[in-house]
């Protein structure tokens, strides 16, 4: 019987496994694919502050560094927030995942490729490997198996009813501003937004998210046409982005969920890497304390308080915007611009932690006109 089994060798599962191995525990990682980091289903935008807080070295996975964002309302009002320094990295997701893989291997984690979890019953893991069934047993199971999580489906039925956004993305050649990402709200991306994330001034990741049931490939064509973008598509990908309010318990018996499997994405942007990695540290800490000192695994839920506070604000902002009619969103953009949101966010903006800049709004009289909207969110 293994001590700890991590299902899924994405960045979150591998980070969790490495921490536990460093703490001295035997860790097995099971990954359904034959290699790590493929297929890529991500735009690869990660806050610099998040990476620094996590103390990560990204090696050669960074392909571009951006200084801010240009955000467009449905009617074309725009807000530009551009700092002098780098605020986010655009990473090659394959190379990024390899950073975590190499570390986990170097530390001696037992990584099994081509092993797919089919079902989980308590400590029994039913796996499929090259068309054959296998049974593994594990004291503790950590579900880091992404948006489609089998662990969540097997052990957390209630959480599995949560929502998702469907993402569609193309890597494309064209003319782009290398320093700024773009976000576009409009009817081509119902319930979410479209994005342009530059790898360079000639290549970008152009994509959108939309509610389940939308034809995102068609929506993408509409977005390109509506914006008059001239691009040459190099490759396409798609994937699910978990979209839920935080707060449900992520511990069931000796099974824990983390990362996309636990729906730990920012609902405003769909970004899940920084929060997933931070949650991996909390999860590994709770498991280590359980194994060393018999502390309850439920400490994991309690220790997520600070992360969940931020995720909840992201969720409320997303829900507030999602309910707005396009003309109201245009008006909100105009109002925010007049109130000086651009210089305010250039000074105080924080991609991951909205509570930090929302508090600061109280001390800026020019921002008070936006408080009714902000108060509806917090
Ligand atoms: C279109 C799109 C764009 C995105 N853009 C961004 C972005 O710009 N920035 C950002 O921060 N986030 C972004 N995200 C979200 C980001 O990709 C995820 O939050 C992140 O990958 C979560 O990491 P994870 O390790 O939890 O899950 P994953 O990276 O999904 O890893 C899960 C792993 O588990 C494996 N697995 C799944 N099921 C099983 C099974 N049954 N048995 C064994 N192994 C299994 C998978 O093969 C995979 O390797 C985007 C997502 C999408 C879909």
Automatic annotation (TrEMBL):
For this entry, the protein name equals NAD(P)/FAD-dependent oxidoreductase
Q: Where is the FAD-binding domain?
A: 4-227
GO molecular function terms noted in the UniProt entry: FAD binding; oxidoreductase activity, acting on the CH-CH group of donors, NAD or NADP as acceptor
Please name the Pfam families in this protein's record.
FAD_binding_3
Family annotation (Gene3D superfamilies): D-Amino Acid Oxidase, subunit A, domain 2, FAD/NAD(P)-binding domain
